[in-house]
């Protein structure tokens, strides 16, 4: 990654539970609820499979962030993926999202997102492009599961987010804990 500041590349939302989300000029983050107008907006979980399991569980997946560097790596492997196509709300560049610990706060303009965990990619990714799922979730040489499909977070402070906005990272106090799937 570069020495330039971390930035928002693109923002996306969809009111339907669709796989991809179209680019928009701005999203509004609402504290404790998520992206206004998005299908995953709410205090309690909105992901369909999780709603079926327990609709009262808290929504730790209010905002999905994905790093554009992943799209560059996928292109080198023969896949074409553009921002929003894997369902993220915010596409970033210049930040190691997957290396952040739980509780990291990402300030974007007036908005703040607190990172809760890793996105667990699902079979729909292969429906989008055959073989892509194996590039986003796999087992490393030591038997650990590696998930590359971005991070999830909750909105800790409301505000607009636009392409070009700078992202400031505030790490949590120690001890810090590695991200796991949410």
TrEMBL record:
> For the MOSC domain, which residue ranges apply?
21-170
Under Gene3D superfamilies, the record lists: PK beta-barrel domain-like
Per the UniProt entry, the signal peptide is: none
Q: Which InterPro entries match?
A: MoCF_Sase_C (IPR005302), MOSC_domain (IPR052716), Pyrv_Knase-like_insert_dom_sf (IPR011037)
Q: Which GO MF terms are attached to this record? A: catalytic activity; molybdenum ion binding; pyridoxal phosphate binding
The record's annotation in Pfam families points to: MOSC
By its UniProt entry, which PANTHER family does this protein fall under?
Answer: METAL-SULFUR CLUSTER BIOSYNTHESIS PROTEINS YUAD-RELATED, MOSC DOMAIN-CONTAINING PROTEIN
This protein's name? MOSC domain-containing protein
